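are you around this afternoon, could really use another pair of eyes. what follows is a protein written twice so to speak, once as letters and once as structure tokens for the fold. i want to understand how the tokens follow from the sequence so walk me through it. anything you notice is useful, everything is just below.
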Amino acid sequence: MSWRWDRPWRRAAAVSALVALIGGAVSLGVGAVLRADERTAAAVQMDRLTATAVAAVRAETRRYVDTLRTTAAAVGAQQTLTAAEYAALTAPLRGMRLAGATSMALVVPATDGEVAQVERTWRDRGATGLTLRPQGVGEHAFTVLVAALDGGTGRTGLDMTQAAAPAAVLAESRRSREVAVSDTYQLLVDRTLPPERRQNSFVLAAPVYQGVGENFLGWLLFGIRGQDFMGGILQSAGAGLTDLRLEADEVTGQVVTVATVHNPAGHRADLERAVAVPVADSTWTLRLTAARRDLPGGRTGLPAAVAGGGVCLTLLLTVLVWVLATGRERAQARVEAATTELIAEQAETGRQATLLQAVLDSISEGVAVAGADGTLLMENPAAHAILGQAAPPAGGADSWQQHFGFYRPDGVTPVPTGEMPLVRALAGENVDQMEMTVRNATHPDGRLISVSARPIDTAGGRRGAVAVFHDITDRKRVETELRAFAGMVAHDLKAPLTLVSAYAELVAEALDDLAGGSGAPTLDQARRGTAKVLHGAGRMQRLINELLDYTAARDATLRVERLSLRALVDEVVTARTDAPGHEPEARPDIFVGPLPDVHADPVLLRQVIDNLVGNAIKYTPPGQAPRIDITAREDEDGGVRVRIADRGIGIPDGEHAAVFDSFHRASNGMAHPGTGLGLAICRRIVERHGGHIDAAPNPGGGTIFSFTLSGAIAHDAEPVPQTPDTVTTS
């Protein structure tokens, strides 16, 4: 037998080897690319979980520091602090759900020679039974008032210098005049507990200064158990993670675990993140680990399946090439063409599948596919967002009502299973734009959706169905608003337009009579008619202006900048109090308290304040001078709440929320001109700034309007002036 390369079997072997080499390389390469994509997806998921956990830890530690700083300021504001006043100031802390908090203690300094005098002073201030127990000699720091936050009674008279950690944090807090955090240690109140119940704890300390001269009173010491403090936050933020640890670096250089959460998943952790978290004047470290296979998209069988399938296909093609390549040249060409086409089709199929998945993931319409047994086979992200729930893990159509919460458009009547669009499509029926309400834990207020469904054939010729979901909540709300808008415009413009038309005819007749020689009575009639025409035109102009303001409040571009709320309020107050037409005895009396700087649109914010002040003046009983108080305070979340309180006619019970609806007029029996759009404009502007507005009765008569500007504080509120300039009066 000759070993010539032109022999059929020799050529077949060469071609088969080439096919095997190329197919194997392509299969393994695709598998490697998919595995790299999985690693990237796992890293992205790990970064997202890390960001969520860090945000939760930062928010919680900031809340505790802000609580201590606010309480210290309140304690320092007391001219002579007593035990009763301290109890009243710290009472709200028990309702704030401060996990891990043990107590809030007032600690005062004393030297050896001052111990007896300090003990008498605080006993006189209501701390009956106080006994100071100094440790050693020199400087001491005693707990004289204690507010227990964990159900205990709290211990007074302790010398906090006996423990190194609290002694060091007291010194640092006084030196820096800021909140400071201690090294972790066993709290004095916990040393009587069994060892298995003891935790690594720490204290936050804030200096307390009194009066204009900022005389140092002592410290507020906030005791916190580490695991109780952060355990719940780490548990909720650690879904999908293997281990979370919050660590603190001690002064000695030792790393101590403050709190930890371990979620055993049965897989070895191969991803790790460490992020610095600021706590008062210190920086702690949050360490997170996870197993890539436990993260969404982190590790699947797809790369191995693709590579294995490609190898198997390659082997099959290799055998096929070997068999056919030994035949005639025409068969060889036919096989080569078929192989090329098969590879191209395989690549095209993969591209089409990727494209289809990308389209489904990116469109805003929700798409869901159900199998013949009612099991949801596929649901894109938009469908998940619209329905508020992921597909149920098991169960057919009978479980959809309980899982998703489908109701008729009235939001009350459940949709029977047999009338659901997907169920009807599974029965072979086409469903177009069926409106339903979906209400569940994600959408507690309900969302109005439109659903269209069609029957389809799934794999193997089995019947299935596809549904497309569209959220029409906003569209329906706009349609309702437009109907009310059209009705209101038709009603409110018809009356003045009729008046203008009627009196214009009278003016025309009077002018004809004047042309015929009529005297002064006819001229007076023409003048009265002209005045009525101008009055009606003015009413229509005011209505049109308010409608334009109402539209601008929703559609105008926000131009947010840092501005002085006090300066803006002063402009409105000056314009309102100096406006002509006020009787001397009925001129508005307006009090303006300390106001902070904020970040907001100055034009729209001025409209809110002007509308509220104008309403307060307009809805004051005749003959009574309007009395208005404008104040502001900081909220716990860093925002600002503005209050405008009046002594007017008030709002009837049950209508305090409805007055912010478009075209609503309070049914208090008093006739005042207006369209009912002013407060609706205020609500739109406030909500576009991320805030909330509400109304409540004023205990002394009238109404209190309050609105918030979320996260708008630019710096601390201006200090209260010591002169009468705070009040703007008549």
The radius of gyration is 38 Å. The mean pLDDT is 80. DSSP finds 15 helices and 23 strands in the chain. The first helix runs from residue 8 to 76.
